[in-house]
Design brief:
By secondary structure, the protein is an all-alpha fold. It has 14 helices and two strands; from the N terminus they run ααααααααααααααββ. The two termini are 21 Å apart.
């Protein structure tokens, strides 16, 4: 009887610690998810031409000098063959394009960012320190934020920042899912009890599911955004290479794949903003009801997935890489959860045999969780009549327990 109580207490304590850790990681990730999605979704790597240039510009400048030398040598070779006019007609425009391309790219990136930020929040003043209009005082900012349907109870200055709607969608998906008050009074009264039950189901019993969803979503969004950002830097920084490859008959098709992705890269920030704006508007306008609350949560998750992954999916060169990387990350999260839960369950089952038995049971649970993830052999009955063993756990079946020695 005592061993059964100890087994139950240890098991409950271990699972509570595991659930607390998952919820804590999810809360920490959700706090910075809106800022990360806004930064990666709206920003494109630039050359910093308004200053002295950054590392990307220095790489581009090095490749541009190499391309210029190749152009000069090719022009001299054509001039020796009496074809200097044809060589100049191709080399001169290309050299001029390579000279002005960093300025054109920075201007396009700035326009893309400005349009995306304006779509997310027309009130944004493009000043990170003072995002609201100059005519607004603190009282006006607080009133506007309180009256906004997208407020989440944070900093009132959020009412003028691009993260306003992004934070609202993250709130619905990762934290407390709610429905804005609407409809007639009798409809609200009649739907009060079902809506309360739905709120308990979505926000209490679904907390662990929300936690795992936001962990997977954060990792997928971060990887997709970083891959797209790195690819944009590759396309812009190596433009002299793609320009040279266009002049080689057998390599022009490969260069065209990189050059054709430039419009999609510049359209990615406005597209991300449109997805967030349309999705948040749909969430706010959700009708009150018991079934609508679960639909609001599912829609919020869908909006975040769409805004995070669709811009990268528009670029064919990185589409497969994003799919493979997100699949590996989500599988890793599931594998880690299964292994840790298996370890806790094994430790709880071995707690009745003392500390060595708990360690032995924990190792058995670790092996069981690992084999469940990787597709190990099925369960085999223990010769001692205890709980089923999995794969490698059977190796320890013949050894006596600590308490049986």
């Amino acid at each position: 009887m005592v061993f059964t109580i100890v087994d139950g207490v240890v098991g409950m304590a271990g699972m509570l610690l595991f659930m607390t850790a998952i919820l804590g990681v999810s809360a920490a990730l959700s706090d910075g998810f809106a800022g990360m999605l806004t930064h990666l979704g709206l920003g494109l790597p630039g050359f910093g031409t308004e200053r002295s240039g950054n590392a990307l510009y220095h790489t581009y400048d090095q490749l541009r000098w190499a391309a210029t030398i190749i152009l000069v040598c090719a022009t001299l070779a054509c001039a020796a063959l009496g074809r200097w006019r044809a060589a100049l007609r191709r080399a001169a425009p290309l050299a001029l394009f390579l000279l002005v391309f960093p300025y054109l790219w920075d201007y396009g990136a700035q326009v893309s960012y400005a349009s995306g930020a304006w779509i997310l929040n027309p009130l944004y003043s493009f000043d990170t320190e003072e995002p609201c209009p100059d005519t607004w005082d603190h009282t006006r900012i607080t009133q506007e934020y309180g009256a906004s349907p997208y407020h989440t109870g944070g900093d009132p200055d959020m009412v003028c920042r691009p993260e306003l709607r992004v934070e609202y969608v993250v709130e619905q998906a990762a934290r407390t899912t709610t429905i804005s008050a609407g409809g007639h009074t009798m409809e609200l009264v009649s739907d009060a009890i079902p809506a309360g039950l739905a709120e308990v189901f979505v926000n209490v019993f679904g907390a662990i599911h929300k936690a795992f969803t936001i962990i997977n979503l954060t990792m997928a969004a971060a990887v997709a955004g970083i891959i797209l950002d790195m690819y944009a830097g590759l396309v812009a920084g190596a433009m002299p290479v793609w320009a040279m490859m266009c002049m080689v008959p057998r390599l022009d098709s490969l260069s065209a794949r990189f050059l054709a992705s430039i419009p999609a890269l510049l359209l990615a920030p406005p597209l991300t903003s449109v997805i967030i704006v349309v999705g948040s508007s749909a969430l706010v306008s959700a009708p009150p009801g018991a079934a609508a609350l679960l639909g609001v949560w599912a829609a919020a998750v869908a909006v975040l997935f769409l805004a995070s992954l669709l811009p990268a999916a528009m670029v064919p060169a990185v589409r497969g890489v994003v799919q493979l990387s997100t699949m590996v990350l989500t599988s890793g999260v599931s594998a880690s959860a299964a292994i840790v839960s298996g370890t806790i369950a094994g430790a709880a089952s071995g707690a009745r045999n003392g500390r060595p038995g708990a360690i032995h049971g924990g190792l058995e649970g670790l092996a069981a969780g690992h084999l469940r993830v990787v597709g190990g052999s099925g369960p085999a009955e223990s010769p001692h009549g205890s709980s089923p063993r999995h794969g490698l756990e059977g190796l320890a079946a013949g050894h006596p327990r600590t308490s049986e020695r």
